[in-house]
Structures are given as structure tokens and as C-alpha cells.
Amino acid sequence: MKKSNFITLDSLSLQEFDENSELIPLMTPEDEEAINNEELPETLPILSLRNTVLFPGVVIPITAGRDKSIKLINDANKGGKVIGVVSQKDESVEDPSAKDINETGTVARILRVLKMPDGNVTVIIQGKKRFKVAEVLTEDPYMNATIRDMAEAKPAVNNKEFSAIIDSIKDLALEIIKESPNIPSEASFAIKNIESNSFLINFVSSNMNISVAEKQSLLEMNDLKKRALATLKFMNVEFQKLELKNDIQSKVQMDMSQQQREYFLHQQMKTIQEELGGVSHDEEIEEMKLRASEKQWSKEVAKHFDKEISKMQRMNPQVAEYSIQRNYLELFLDLPWNEFSTDKFDLKYAKKVLDRDHFGLEDVKRRIIEYLAVLKLRNDMKSPILCLYGPPGVGKTSLGKSIAEALGREYVRISLGGLRDEAEIRGHRKTYIGAMPGRIIQSLKKAGTSNPVFVLDEIDKLSNSHQGDPSSAMLEVLDPEQNNEFYDNFLEMGYDLSKVMFIATSNSLSTIQPALRDRMEIINVTGYTIEEKVEIAKRHLLPKQLKEHGLTESHIKIGKAQLEKIVEGYTRESGVRGLEKQIAKMVRYAAKNIAMEEDYNIKISNEDVIEVLGGPKLERDKYENNNVAGVVTGLAWTRVGGDILFIESILSKGKGTLSITGNLGKVMKESATIAMEYIKSNADSFGIDSAIFDTYNVHIHVPEGATPKDGPSAGVTMLTSLVSLFTQKKVKKSLAMTGEITLRGKVLPVGGIKEKILAAKRARIKEILLCEENKRDIDEIKADYLKGLTFHYVTDMSDVIKIAVTDQKVKHAKKL
Ligand SMILES: Nc1ncnc2c1ncn2[C@@H]1O[C@H](COP(=O)(O)OP(=O)(O)OP(=O)(O)O)[C@@H](O)[C@H]1O
Fold first, then answer.
1. Is there a cis peptide before residue 141, judged by omega within 30 degrees of 0?
2. Against a cut of 0.80, is the pTM above it?
3. 332 partner at 20 to 30 Å CA-CA among 207, 471, 574, 750?
4. Which residues contact 596 (CB under 8 A, 6 or more apart)?
5. Reduced to 3 states, what is the DSSP secondary structure of residue 133?
6. What is the mean pLDDT of residues 691-702?
7. What distance in angstroms lies between residue 672's CA and the mean position of ligand 1's atoms?
8. What is the residue with the minimal CA distance to atom 5 of ligand 1?
């Protein structure tokens, strides 16, 4: 035996062993040869092993606790030191008999016996040769049995396959040792030094991490090549398990170190932030909690806030969700919750404020004061929402502002024009990227109180689209029964809007969703007459512009005559927005002169107006003379106020066709046909020869073809135009008219009377023809507006002709 080759065993205290005995030898091929040639004894004492298998050549320590085993070891140690070692089939059997042990075992030589302090005996044995138990002779005091030799089929020395398997076993064994933290690296020296193939297989099999049964199966294999292959398979499995284990371990380790790294960096950042005087996240949260404690929110909101803030506390401040959560909670803190301003409800003061800010509009102001009076008496806000309706620039929005001031409330305004997405009103859920609360909640945050005056501008221009229906969200906002729990998607909570005073403005009633219109009290703000506009300009617009341009009244004076010129020549509107712009131009002109020290005190003359604004841009809507047959003045209503229009018709030789031009809608064309047919059937009463209907073509035209026109209110005008045409008689001077006609010859009332009257006045019309039923509209109009106008009320189309068409022939009357 070569003493230089030795194996270290971790289960054994080698130091102790070294001190007392020789080193454990490795089995060389020569040793193996010698052992194989040794004659086996016929009988052997059999030591049963519970949890291991002894392979030939391998040295293992065994601790014996059972009396039988201790006696066997002691006897053998005193004698020939050779024993038979067989593993138990079932390790739990305490006192195994013949049937409990495997048939195949290994002859072993006792190398050393160590007596342990606890009475156990540790024996170090080395396997020599396999055997089969032939017959168990005695079981007491320990098992003795006759044994048989076992032949081993060894492959030829030059068997390449076998050599390859052996090489693989060696390589894999080295890999396994490398990967296993528990096997000392010296083991790899041992592997490298093993010269005997069968010992290599046995050594590896013995040290592999496989079950006793598996080890036993290896021991029982007679064919060495097969045994080598089976060993290699087990090794592969073990290697894969090891790799997997290491993989998991390194991952776990990496996760841990990543976490540690992040923690470390966060700590560093926190320190840096604190050094720089910034707010650390903890401080931020503390500050939020402090602010929250001052809020007057309901239990429900407080609970929700607490839940959300503890969510924020658990978050990593570096992730994007953290800032979303912070914004969310800041919205809660910024929003007013049950924070009210005290209402003034001094109606005299309210009237004063309204009068101060707005000239005229007596009716409107009266209704607003009445509305406020009701609010004062009822002392709650569950009254209809005001809707100020009228053409642009008549002061609807600024009335809202004055109401806020009169009541001593905050003022906020949103424009609903062109708003198509419901989320604009209700907000996006906060999980969306860039999500925000809706405009209602945003405005309340801006207002800072829970009861502001909230102006909803252009409510008629809310539009529907595939992104939802904003008007249904608006319905919830404006419904006093529902709006105490208005749900905003971003806020994820109901918000009480019931104390908010909503005022809507609108240019048209027909485009407001009917359900919305029902919820509102409509107040009509009509346009202004020229005189009123001049007054508004003098009292409000000019002082406002002077202030904005840093001037005072001593710098520039614009007389009434010039203001009137500006109104008539440069603006065409019911409101005063355009007028304000023109005045701003005049003020800028003065400011320039003053700044250049050319003139300190400017009194604007007519020439100045032309110099600054250019020649008058607009001819006043003038009534035209009545020298031509078939030309009649009608009154029209548009979204931007009233207007006058002319209906012209001519005759040409032909076959009696009727053509209509001027960009007219279907209803207006129908009016023309009705008028024509009515005249045909009543030709005699108008003194018209029916023959001309077949010999002349009629063409009706409504000028300004670029502007689309529609509606039934031009019916009476068309009728008058055609009668005048067929009779070649003059239409009454300075007369304008509006009214729908029917085939039976009736005249029906129409809308927009106030605007139409204002337009007629602007055009210097003197007489107006209307349906009898429209009289009640006229009665509602301020007497001032009606000054200088004569009204003719009719019910029948024949009355229209009687009033409108004179007996005089026109200048160049056609002979028909
Ligand atoms: N009666 C008035 N007295 C004083 N100023 C007026 C009056 N009417 C309108 N104004 C002024 O005209 C300007 C335009 O008014 P505002 O913006 O309120 O019009 P609006 O009716 O709301 O128009 P829109 O329908 O286009 O929103 C404001 O500067 C307003 O102060």
C-alpha cells in the first residue's frame, strides 16, 4: 500500500485519527489485485448497517450503538479484524434478522476502533470484496453466516467505451466537488489520484448523495461497465440538482444584495436631501397629515384619506406611483371640504353692484335680484339654476361675475364650448397616465370654497361624441337632487356641489339638451340699441380701456357723436364686444401720441376716428327705397342677434317656373312655394290676371348668398314681394315684417321678436308688420326700444297685402 495516497473524510476527526494511527490508504490496482486473489473465509460475522452501504476499497466510519454490533466489533477487533458488512433493507428495524438484511454485502477490514464517551463505538472499516450471504448460521450473540464469492465482469483493458465512461465520471466528480460547498477541495486531489477504475466507481458511489437502496442496487451489479454507467447517471442527476440549487442560491443572493443596495442608496439620498434642506419623504407625509388634521371633511373622506396616506407611506418614493399618489392626496388637501364663504344677501348692495357693472339690462337685473331674494328667504341653494341666454357680448358672463361679487362669493368660470369628452367634466381614473380631475373639481380647487358662483359658459355648445356624453355628466352637476354626491373619477369619491351657485350662459336655446334646459331658469339677455351701446361705451368700456392702457379721462375724450359713429360704422353686433375692441384701438392711438409727447389732451374728432379705424367698414343696415316692385324688407333672427334682410323677386318671359336662390334652407323654400300657390288661388282678389302665371317665370332671391338662411318667418315677406311683383305696385315705405304663412292664408307668430325690433331700429325702419299673437312679445319690450315704431298686427294674409302693398305703381312699372 502506498502511504502517500490518502483520503480525507469529513465525518471523521482526522486529527485524532492521525495521531493514533496510520493514514487511511487509497486502494491501488495492485491492492485490488491482491484482494481479488485472496481467498474468502467460509463464514463471517455479519454487521448490519442501517443507513449506508460499504463499497470495496472505500473507508467509512461506522458508529455502533446496538449491543450485538458492539460485541461483534470487539470480538472481530481482537481476532482477524475481518467482518461481513450488509445493509439493512429497512433502517427502522432495531434488531435485524436474516430476512431483514440484503443478500449482497462487502467483506470489510477493521482499521480502527474508537470508544466514544457515550458508550458507542466508532469503527473505521475498509471494504474489500463483495459477497453474497449463503446461509445465516446463528443470530446470537451476533449474526454469523456462510458466504459466497461474487464474480465481477470487468471490461477489457482497452475498452474505449468504458474508458470514456471512467473519464466522464472523473470529470463530473471534479465538477461536483467544485460546485459543492460542503465537500472539501482536497477531495478533488483524491479523485485525481485514484488509479483503479473499479475503486473510482466505488468511491464515487459511496460518496454520492443517493438513497441507501440506490447505493445497494449499484453494489449488486456484477458488470462493472453497467455499474459505471449507472453511477454516471446518478452523478448527472446530482450535478443538475446542484446546479439548480446554486442557481437559486445565487439569485436569492442577488435579490438580497439588490435590496440592500437600494436601501443604502435611499438612505444616502435621504441624508443628502436633509443636508440640502429639502423635505424628506417622512417629513412630507407628516406635513400632509398635519394639513389633513385641519380639514373639515366628513368621517368618510377622512377615513379614505388615512387609508390612502398609509398606502403612500408604504411606497418606494422613487417609483412613479408615489408621485401619482402624492398628487392625489394633495388634491384632497387643496380642495375645499365644507369650507364656505358667508353670503351677504344684502339685496340693495347686490343691486348696486349689478348697476355699477352693467348699464341697462333692467329686466335681467330685476330677475336676478328676485332670484337672490328667493334664495335669501329659503336659505338653501336648491333652486333652479340660472341660464343667461342671448347673443354674444351682451354681458352674460360678466353678469355672473357681478352676482358673485354681490353675494360675496368666490367666482369661477369654465367654458363648455366644444367639450366632447365626458372625462373633461368627470375626470379620468387615476390609473391613467397623466390623469387629472374633471373641470368641475379643478375649478373648485381654484375657488378655494365649497360655495362659489360657478359660471358654465356656452352650455349650448356641449357636444356629443364617442368619448361619452358630457351633457349627461352636466345633468348630474346641475341636478339639485343628485349633486350633493357628484362623483369624480379621479377623486374616487363623491363631492357635494349642492352649495355651489351655478349660472349657465348660452347663445341659443334650441341646442341645449332638453333635459338640461328643464333644470334651468332661462333669463333672456337681448342685444342693445345704438343709444344703449353709446352709453355702455361711455360709462364702462372707455373707462375700462383707459385703465388697461394706463391713461385717465383727462388724456382722451371721445364724444357721443364719435361713439355713435364707431358703433354704426365699425360694428355690427347685438353685444358690445366688437365695440370694445374698436374703443381699445382709439385708446391705443391716444396712448401712442401721449407717449411720444405729441399731444397731452386728445379730443377725438370724426377725422380721428377715420384715421385710426379707416373708412367706415359697414353700411348701416339701411332700409332701401321702395321704387322697385318685388323688393320687401324682412326681419330675421340669428344667433348673434337680429338682422334685416331683403327679399327680391323678378319676372321674366317663360312658362311659369319658380326659381329660388340665396342659399335658402328647405323651410324657407317651402314658404316661397306656399306664397306662390296662395297668390295663384287668390289672384282675382289681388287684381292679378291669372294668365301671367303661365307666361312668366318667377325668380325669388334673398341677397347675401354666402350666408345660409332658413326658417318660416320670411313667409309674409315673400308673399308681399310676389304680390308687389305681379301687381307692379309699391310696397309701403319704411316697413319691415316677419311672420309665418299657411296655405289657408293664415299668419302665424314667430320668435326672436326683441332682437328683430332692435335690428329694425338700427336700420331706421318706421313700421313693423307682425302676427297678432306676437303682440304679447312687443308688450314685454321696454317702451324706450319701441319709440318711433308703429306696429301693424295681422292674422290673415289678405291683411298683410292690404297694409303692405300700396295702390301706387312703381316708377318703371312693367306692362303685364
Ligand atoms: N350692459 C353692459 N354694461 C356694461 N358692460 C357691458 C354690458 N354688456 C356687456 N358689457 C361688457 O362687454 C364685454 C363682453 O361681455 P361678456 O363677455 O359678458 O359677454 P357674453 O354675453 O358672456 O358673451 P359670450 O356669449 O360670447 O360669452 C364685457 O367686458 C362686459 O363687461
1. yes
2. no
3. 471
4. none
5. strand
6. 90
7. 38
8. 358
User: Looking at the DSSP assignment, which residues form a beta bridge with residue 141?
Assistant: none
For residue range 44-78, what is the model confidence (pLDDT) as tens digits?
A: 999 999 888 999 988 888 888 888 888 888 888 88
Active site residue 713: yes
For ligand 1, the distance from its centroid to the CA atom of residue 358, given in whole angstroms, is 9
ipTM over 0.90: yes
Mean of the per-residue pLDDT values of the chain: 84
pLDDT in tens, 420-448: 888 888 888 888 877 889 999 999 999 99
- Residues near ligand 1 with C-beta < 6 Å? 358-361, 392-398, 457, 505, 507, 536, 540, 575-577, 580
CA distance 25 to 4: 8
Strands 385-389 and 121-138, how do they pair?
unpaired
The strand pair at 501-506 and 453-457 is best described as parallel
Give the position of cell 459543492: 180
What crossing angle do the helices spanning 560-570 and 606-613 adopt, rounded to 10°?
A: 30
Mean pLDDT for the stretch of residues 257-273? 74
Pocket test for ligand 1, best of 358, 398, 453, 638 (most atoms within 8 A of CB): 398
Does 569 belong to an annotated binding site? Answer: no
Q: Distance between alpha carbon 45 and the CA centroid of its chain, in Å?
A: 85
Q: How many CA atoms lie within 13 A of 394 on its CB side?
A: 25
pLDDT greater at residue 380 or residue 153: 153
Q: What is the pLDDT of residue 1?
A: 32
Chain segment 361-402, per-residue pLDDT in tens: 888 898 889 888 888 887 766 667 889 988 888 999 999 999
pLDDT beyond 70 at 24: no
pLDDT band at 17 (very low <50, low <70, confident <90, very high): very low
DSSP string, 350-393: HHHHHHHH-SS-HHHHHHHHHHHHHHHHH-SS-SPEEEEE-STT
Determine the average pLDDT of the residues in 490-500. 89
d(CA 743, CA 675): 8
Whole-angstrom CA distances from 271 to 266, 277, 280, 320, 409 are 8, 10, 9, 21, 46
Question: Considering only CA atoms, which of 760, 712, 757 is closest in space to residue 739?
Answer: 712
Handedness of CA 163, 169, 172, 177 (dihedral sign): negative
Domains and CATH numbers, the chain: 14-224 (2.30.130.40), 281-334 (no CATH), 347-523 (3.40.50.300), 530-613 (1.10.8.60), 631-809 (3.30.230.10)
Tell me if 392 is assigned to a ligand binding site: yes
Alpha-carbon distance values, 308 to 294, 322, 330, 410, 437 (Å): 17, 11, 11, 30, 17
Q: Tell whether the model's pLDDT for residue 602 goes beyond 70.
A: yes
The identity of residue 386, as a single letter, is L
Annotated binding residue 396: yes
Of the candidates 498, 456, 489, 449, which has an alpha carbon nearest to the alpha carbon of residue 474? 456
For residue 563, the CA-to-ligand 1 centroid distance in Å is 18
Are 329 and 315 in contact by the 8 Å Cβ rule? The answer is: no
In whole angstroms, give the CA distance from residue 809 to residue 792. 22
Taking the C-alpha atoms of residue 750 and residue 770, their distance in angstroms, rounded to an integer, is 9
Per the annotation, does 390 bind a ligand? yes
Tell me, in angstroms, the distance from the centre of ligand 1 to residue 549's CA.
Answer: 19
pLDDT-derived band at 698 (thresholds 50, 70, 90) equals: very high
Supply 733's cell numbers.
315705405
Handedness of CA 579, 581, 583, 585 (dihedral sign): negative
Give me 553's grid cell.
379721462
Task: Provide the H-helix boundaries in 358-486.
Answer: 362-378, 396-407, 422-426, 439-447, 470-478
